[in-house]
Amino acid sequence: MTETLDLIPLAPDEVTLGVNEPAWLADLRRAGLSVYRGQGLPTVRVEAWKYTSLAGLRKIDHVRDDGTLGLSDWGGRGALDLPDAHTVTLVNGRPVGVPDALPVGVRVASLAHLLETEPDLLTPYLGRGADLSDTPMGALNAALMADGLVVLVAPGVALDRPLHMISVTEAPDHARHIHPRHLVVLGAGADATLVESRVTAPGAAPTLTNMVTDMVVGERARLRHLSLANGGAEAVDLGLTTVTVGAEAAYDAFTLTLGGRLVRHEGCVRLAGAGAETRLRGAYGVREAQHVDTTLRVDHAVADTTSDQVFKGVVDAGGRGVFQGKTLVRRDAQRSDGGQLHKALVLSRDAEVYTKPELEIYADDVKCGHGATVGELDADQLFYLMARGITEADARALLVEAFLDDVVEAVPEGALRDAFLDAVRAWQARRHAVTWQA
Amino acid sequence: MVATQETVERIAEATGRYKYGFITDIDSDKAPKGLNEDIVRFISAKKDEPDWLLEWRLKAYRHWLTMREPSWAKLGYPPIDYQDAYYYAAPKSPEDAPKSLDEVDPELLRTYEKLGIPLREQEMLAGVAVDAVFDSVSVATTYKKKLEDMGVIFCPISEAVQRYPELVQRYLGSVVPYSDNFFATLNSAVFTDGSFVYVPKGLRCPMELSTYFRINERNTGQFERTLIIADEGSYVSYLEGCTAPQRDENQLHAAVVELVTMDDAEIKYSTVQNWYPGDENGKGGIYNFVTKRGACRGRDSKIMWTQVETGSAITWKYPSCILQGDNSVGEFYSVAITNNAQQADTGTKMIHIGKNTRSRVISKGIAAGRADQTYRGLVRMMPKAEGARNYTQCDSLLIGDRCGAHTVPYIETRNPTAQVEHEATTSRISDDQLFYCLQRGIPQEDAVTLIVNGFCKEVLQTLPMEFAVEAQKLVGVSLEGSVG
């Protein structure tokens, strides 16, 4: 018999996966389980999930991934092409080998391995990022997490090349649910670039990925976090990223979402030290029964902190885009600077966009604002290009690329940006094919 | 199986619905405390209402019993005991009213003075006994006569139920159904009075309709119901409330306003709300839960809401427009000021259904002291809203570091040709502006008033002239004690 998501796991004892897990981890799992049991799978009646329904998940019998699958011959399809990066591949959240030739002071390891050998190393970080009580899916992850990637960068160390994490989900036989847990810790003054590609192996049955990533950026450290969600047509990809940014430190993120049936990227960034800053950029392209939800929360916990969110979406026939962004400025977090912008381009009928940009401000000496627009391609611009002999399809593709340009520009120039631009163009090419066939 | 008499009694006891039997003495001035079906029947009987209205009230009441008080707004207040309130009280007799202004709270009079309200109106507002304001009554009667000759119906809704039952029956609850929300449903069950306006086809109502002229039914109580219908090609401007602080012994207010515009018709609805905000800790202030909604049913019709909200301890209010007719227009202009411990959660909903519908939302929120303020708005473009447009701007101004300003907009687009733009900012009074004023010898408090008035200018300008002048002064009065 298969377990439905509402009923898993069956008993508290079954939650503990490791044999000799430390007490703090067992507590974390129990707390997660009790929250998930209390709230269950979020429904659209829950404010934070108002525009994203998980009801479809109930119709599928998922089994819990048992962590035994090896890497299939998936051919790298859909992932970013970054030959020069340190690369680590994960199958259903489990690292398959770790990169060698890492600089001294950088450690990349499997979570399961560290929990078994050096659990004390993880005690100060794991599960400290988010309050489980308002994230039932995060709570479920805490209860069920089995493996993931741990990246530790020692104080003052700079990672020479980007670390490319390729997460492949596989389900050759039966629909699976997977709960990867990653942890990235940068010591004071460290510097690193982390790139993620999330893809699905061809021919996979429906998968539900419920990922949580905890990140800690130490004082004066700098973390660039770039990711591409490019899952298969039946992939459900839920991700919660919690980031704590220390004094004078910076966390810069870029998220590109192109694939997957239902993708929800939830980011919680806490600016915890004076001078901390974060720039969150992202773009998404959705079509044909795809649903992409970006939910961000930036918490200006102390004074003199800066945040800036810019997200752009292109929504084509049958697609649905959701953007929920919240900027919270706490009492006495004076001189906070918070910007937020969401722009959506609607390409055709039956496309839907839902935007909820939120400000919650408790300090007066702040500069906070947000902007949001939704509309179609500018007819004048299209006419201008077509009058110069460019076909309508090419003109549209050009304008879409131009629309996304100022967010993709957030990616450092060179191989990285090229890889992301290639992904955008591949997505556009698929639309061409669709248009032509129709 | 036949239920025993004992069971029947036990159920009756448990549900409490029929505790007082069907007959309540309708000659009494006050219904007993609490809410049950008998109170609803009592109110209806007092007003000699037709059966359909009583049925409607009862349907609302029964539905209300199944509802839960909403908790999503960013408001904090102790739970309201709905059984610990009176739902009907006859208007006070003139003997109870103060005989002259000398008997009125001097604090209140000082505020009137600051607002520049004429003496006669001061007497009226303070509720001085009728003969003192006799002139106003006759003025009101004269205007009413004139309006009636032109075909405009402007009367208490209880009177309209008697005189124009078919109009009331057709439109009452057609914009805000009895099952709409917790507070609107409560209002549907127990509303006591309110205004009814009908403007006939093609008529431009020659004067602003104001609650000032309704002094004989001023005491409409806490559950006011207003219904305004503008027939094809007509226009009406309606003013509600006044700038002067109004005291009311009832803490809970739950009003419903419904507007309907037919082809080419326009309604301009302006509100100045200055109910008692409570003391410095918000104690004793009015809880104001209002449902206001307009339906632009006809082509090229327009509804414009303007509100200046400075009073009440709690404000929960979202004047909305349902833009059904093609090319119809909805506008919402709002200034909300919260000081001390006041809380306001206010905004609008613009539902675009028809083609080429347009909406514009300008909201200015000012929070001072320990007050919290939230703009909560929805813009929804339905699949058939071809070429629809919306522009929203909400700005918040914070005065002091103990207050809060929040913005929660919802933007839903389901049509590719619809365009939506939303902008929001949060800031405080700039030091430069303040310095500039102080340097020129303008005292700090006046300078703040000046700057805040500038901040709200776009909204205040949309008010009818006399109202606008008073509203500007009101801004200053509301912010008293917030600086220095």
TrEMBL record, chain A:
SUF system FeS cluster assembly SufBD core domain: residues covered: 176-403
Stretches that traverse the bilayer: none
Lineage per the UniProt record: Bacteria, Pseudomonadati, Pseudomonadota, Alphaproteobacteria, Rhodospirillales
Domain SUF system FeS cluster assembly SufBD N-terminal, chain residue ranges per copy: 100-164
GO biological process annotation, one example: iron-sulfur cluster assembly
NCBIfam families from the UniProt entry: sufD
Gene source species: Roseospira visakhapatnamensis
Protein family per UniProt: Belongs to the iron-sulfur cluster assembly SufBD family.
Coiled coil (residue ranges): none
Pfam families: SUFBD_core, SufBD_N
Protein name (Swiss-Prot/TrEMBL): Fe-S cluster assembly protein SufD
InterPro entries in UniProt: Fe-S_cluster_assembly_SufBD, SUF_FeS_clus_asmbl_SufBD_core, SUF_FeS_clus_asmbl_SufBD_sf, SUF_FeS_clus_asmbl_SufD, SufBD_N
From TrEMBL, chain B:
Family matches, as InterPro entries: Fe-S_cluster_assembly_SufBD, SUF_FeS_clus_asmbl_SufB, SUF_FeS_clus_asmbl_SufBD_core, SUF_FeS_clus_asmbl_SufBD_sf, SufBD_N
Any GO BP annotation: iron-sulfur cluster assembly
Segments forming domain SUF system FeS cluster assembly SufBD core: 213-455
All residue ranges annotated as the SUF system FeS cluster assembly SufBD N-terminal domain in the record: 139-204
PANTHER family, alphabetized: FES CLUSTER ASSEMBLY PROTEIN SUF (PTHR30508), UPF0051 PROTEIN ABCI8, CHLOROPLASTIC-RELATED (PTHR30508:SF1)
Family the UniProt entry places it in: Belongs to the iron-sulfur cluster assembly SufBD family.
Protein's UniProt name: Fe-S cluster assembly protein SufB
Organism field: Roseospira visakhapatnamensis
